[in-house]
Design brief:
The protein is mostly helical. It has 18 helices and 6 strands. Strand 5 and strand 6 form a beta hairpin. The structure holds s-citryldethia Coenzyme A.
Amino acid sequence: MAEKSATLQIGNNNFDFPIRTGSIGPDVIDITTLYKNTDCFTFDPGFTSTASCESAITYIDGDAGVLLHRGYPIDQLAEHGSFLETCYLLLYEELPTVEQLADFTFRVTNHTMIHDQMTKLFSGFRRDAHPMAIMVGVVGALSAFYHDSTDITDERQRDIASLRMIAKMPTIAAMAYKYSVGQPFVYPRNDLDYASNFLHMCFAVPADDYHVDPILARAMDRIFILHADHEQNASTSTVRLAGSSGANPFACIAAGIACLWGPAHGGANEAALTMLNEIGTPDRIPEFVARAKDKDDPFRLMGFGHRVYKNYDPRAKIMQKTTHEVLGVLGIKDDPILDVAMALEKIAIEDPYFKERGLYPNIDFYSGITLKALGFPTDMFTVLFSLARTVGWIAQWKEMIEDPRQKIGRPRQLYTGETMRDFVKVADR
Ligand code: SDX
């Protein structure tokens, strides 16, 4: 079939660019030769119309509200799979067999401890430090303790570094939480599954036995699955860009954590619960909806809207179901914040302003309520998001590093500053 192409006319000249078609989703116009042939750049702040890479990991159909990981719908993975199965799928392209899953689980389980000297890093932070500040610092410091897995040109080292981060993130996240509440660190246990181990490290105390409720552990595991990867979002693009310079994987993941912290991105789950608490009761919702529409008011409904989803975020629906499950197990019948969330969601999705702009609840809208019910303080919500997203960042980083066409990412600009001028001595200014 003849290759499709796009023709760009600049003045009296026509320039043809090949159109490439993926397995599903929009075609792309390959403009890699644009600057060389036309002396022009494209201009697309926020990359609203720009594909930064070719990837086979995750596909999102924002209009249909579809999310696939290596072709598997997120609702099926969340319903039937485990987080470690999803990790294996994202990293190695296929769902694991029984033997492969057992081996992967064994390898992750036996890498959950961190170098004991790293525990001293925590005492360098104020107790009231935001746990995300600790995550950025401690995860970045992993490269100072695991030199033997920082050579990105060595496939074996890449695999070890990947496994170490998936295994150690729950331990570091739990330690960040324990440090913030002034309790002693709880070591990982090899007899517990991934989510149970994390809950145990967060909520066990030396003075008492702590048994993880299997339904809550399953809910935690499902929350991790929902947050595992999401195409070329801001933090994943940060990890790819950092990795494109050849930086070690630990530093790249720390960069991803820093980016995820922003309230427009992963910080929205913390901001959404803060917003719901500020609204307080359903009768105050109209006041906040009016503010969200007011162009002179910077306020936005946190947990609403998405760059890609102009329909319901499929993860939000599963998250909402998990919220009700967790509240049910915990016997929380009338959570006033959930009442506000349900009322706000109903009002917003029927409001023309939000419908016209495709503003629906995203994953962050319900996750905060669930995590609060599980016992986490709001400043831990984005930490949990970064724990789960680590596998997505690593899978995307690995895909980029292993692409022989990969080169350092270096965008250009539209320059609107001063043209060249001569220096003027201070006495003459
Ligand atoms: C995540 O990219 C990912 O995949 C991210 C993520 C992942 O898994 O990695 O899905 C996780 O980050 C989810 C998003 C969490 N963020 C929030 O919930 C913060 C609140 N949402 C917004 O800040 C916003 O919706 C964004 C940042 C998520 C998306 O912004 P866009 O795509 O840049 O859209 P925009 O700012 O151009 O808004 C389009 C219109 C504007 O109105 P008009 O100028 O057209 O009149 O919609 C309005 C905006 O004012 N709008 C909102 C709104 N979000 C957009 N109005 C009120 N409340 C909102 N939340």
